[in-house]
Amino acid sequence: MSSSQSLKIGIVGFGTFGQFLANTMIKQGHTLTATSRSDYSKLCLQMGIRFFRDITSFLDADMDVILLCTSISSLSEVVGSMPLNCLKRPTLFVDVLSVKEHPKNLLLRVLREESDILCTHPMFGKVSGKSGWQNLTFMYEKVRIRDEVTCSKFLQIFASEGCKMVEMSCEEHDKAAAKSQFITHTIGRALAEMDVKPTPIDTKGFQALVQLKEPVMGCSFDLYSGLFMHNRFARQELENLEHALHKVKEMLVQRMNEGQSPERTES
Predict the structure, then answer these.
(1) Which helix (H) or strand (E) holds 34?
(2) pLDDT tens digits for 27-81?
(3) Of 18, 102, 106, 137, which residue has the fewest beta carbons closer than 10 angstroms?
(4) Same-domain pairing of 145 and 13
(5) Same domain, 142 and 205
(6) E strands of 123-237, at which residues?
């Protein structure tokens, strides 16, 4: 990558997902710095990333992009603790949280007018993206963009890896994610509570349920609770799921009371 196309990217929150994104960004030739509550200085040294324990020194490092990879629940506290007056010039702030209206509203409220805002959600992670990002979905909304060049360079990080680039509003994202991502996590955790395990006579349908449980339980409860608490559409979807289960149970009880045997089916 030519120097004119490379970006100076600072990552806030260098946990598993921040490290996952950083590997590809480094491969593409971008210059990275990082800061985090935990000390990742040794790992960053191995990766060729400059690590800052002090947030003031981090912001003083003169970056094109500040990439927010914090947890959903800690975003407000992390952004609120930043001495934003230390920024040397207008900077593009990008978040990669699994909810979108929450970071959008927070960044619009906290950041100065000259700071650009790009809200994104890579719809994949370390497991699903371990073999590359080809055809994996990357959602984004250009919330407040004046520097189109820097924004385009950042989006190109994902487009050049073959991601399916989907531009939509943060509200549209949260509506769709409540019906898909949140419900998937909810069902997966319910299966875990039931201690669902493979049996010697599994049908294909049951195998799919077991496969659903494993990646969901690999995510933290902090992420799951964030999907519920910070997506205003999630509560309704949870109620819809509860209503659907109750409706199915009523249908079974009605059939049993009618004295009829249900048809034998394989699911």
Answers:
(1) strand 31-35
(2) 999 999 999 999 999 999 999 999 999 999 999 999 999 999 999 999 999 999 9
(3) 137
(4) yes
(5) no
(6) 137-144, 164-167
